[in-house]
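Attaching the record inline, Q. Sequence:
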Amino acid sequence: MKDLEYLRDSSPEESNVIFQLARAYRLIGDEVKSAHMLAAARDVSPKNVRKLQKLIETVRDEDEEMDEG
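Structure, as predicted:
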């Protein structure tokens, strides 16, 4: 996390770093920071909206499976 945050701070226009940081926040359960990072990644690189949407959908599917089990 610290490495990704450092990279984000040093390269704020690098959408892949922001996207990976969003994934990391999601993995540790910090949904608010994850959503914030996803929005930032979308703003920096609108062409990656499909990739961002796929991450959101994947997480939603995993959440639904956990609720059913």
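The chain has a mean pLDDT of 79. Helices lie at 2-10, 15-27, 31-44, 49-68.

More tomorrow.
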